[in-house]
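Record filed below.
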Amino acid sequence: MQLKRNTFFLVVSILMISFLVGCGSGEKEDAPKSDDSATTDEELKNEDQDDANQADKNSDKAHETDRKGNTIEITATEMKFEPSQITLKKGQEYEFVMTNDGQVFHDFVEDEMEIKMTFMSDMPDHPDQTSMLDRLLGTKKAFAHSDEKHKKTLHMNAKPGQTVSIKFIPKETGEFEFYCSVPGHKEAGMKGTIIVEE
């Protein structure tokens, strides 16, 4: 009886330590490190203005150069994609490179167009497909797929600040909606259109 009790406490202790270690390592990698922890409202306003100016420049640049060869750069932010309309040619290989410049998890889903998937980068778990035990133990899985049976699903997802990519060949022409499947995001306007021409 004593052995079972000791084993139980050992297992509970290990789980608690794993949980605390996981919670304690949440420091952002790209956060500036400074001895001066006080930030004035003026500094925050200046940073917000700089971010807005950079976003405008990036948006203009994306429209001018979002096609480097057949690479389409897509930016996901809170409740929108840039660009929101993408034109492709049937039968050509394209690479979609999505950067999540938002503050929350976003994904990109298009589930009607017939495609041939040729490459998928490693991607984080979709939050609603990660178990509590996976989060406690820090288990990481790749989550990107093309439904091989139907070949009608493009799906990539990224945490804030992360960039992911997929390569595929559109096999049919038409207009196809893409969207963020995180609950509430599509309804808030986070969607767009892929046009595939002959």
